[in-house]
Amino acid sequence: MSAPRTNIEKQERDHKPSLLGIRGAMIFGALMLLGVFFYVIINGGDEDADAVINTDQASEPEASVPAVDPVEPGTNQSQTNDPSSIDVDDNN
């Protein structure tokens, strides 16, 4: 089913301000993208920026972190093989 009265020239004339606004917004967006692109390119070689050093530390142990026992001293019973040192709570 088509519209009963289609006059493309009249519709184009009536919607000319809207179409111009849409074109203007598209041009503005393109100019903003180009501006951001050139801004990034120009400032990409900034001498004052901190250098990013990618070092592979997976093969090296971390020397700055000391080995810490997650359990308080004397309470970790899994390190001893003596069954008499295991405390059993009979108050159930």
From TrEMBL:
**Span list, region Disordered:** 52-92
**Keyword Transmembrane helix on this protein?**
yes
Sequence intervals crossing the membrane: 20-42
> Which terms are listed as keywords in the entry?
Membrane, Transmembrane, Transmembrane helix
Compositional bias of kind Polar residues:
74-84
> Which protein is depicted?
Uncharacterized protein
What organism is the protein native to? Sulfitobacter aestuarii
